[in-house]
Amino acid sequence: MEKNKHKLVIIVGSVRDGRFGPVVASWVAEQAGMHGGFDVEVVDLAEIDIPLALPAASPKFAGDDYPRPAGMAALTSALEGADAFIVVTPEYNHSYPASLKAAIDWHFTQWTAKPVAFVSYGGAAGGRHAVLHLENVLTELHAVTIRDGLAFPNYFTAWQDGRPLDPEAPGYAKTVLDQLAWWSAALRSARDAAPYPA
Known about the structure:
7 helices; about 20% strand
């Protein structure tokens, strides 16, 4: 990783058959690559073993001894090494997918004192209900949620050939990425200077 770049992990939150998430994540990764401030990794939760049943101990207190399944090692490593995250999520019944909640709950310190931005898609609300719930959850894990985000209402008619039809979308993406880069630098410097007092 180049010293002046931040490690950005883009998480595809949906594992549903026929999901649109990988299309959105691919476009977001392209925008992040063009931005120039990030080394980008896309993590697709559909490719990872994420059980719903959790161990008795909390990952907050168990630390490195937390007994995660071997199939989750790549996810844990990606989260641990990230300076920043973008969560790509649909909206299911006014909230976000169970797969995303499970992936979050299997971890704790990996999110701490790191910035998270959101890209959502859905019907009329564009997935904003899912994002509102995610903001609450990730704040509990001491992550820093970015105010600005991208939401794609009625994505089924608003995208064509893997790209949003709204000509303003790349500009909105740049705003999100600029803010994410700023927070990435600030929080990485802070983590390097002193342990976060969680």
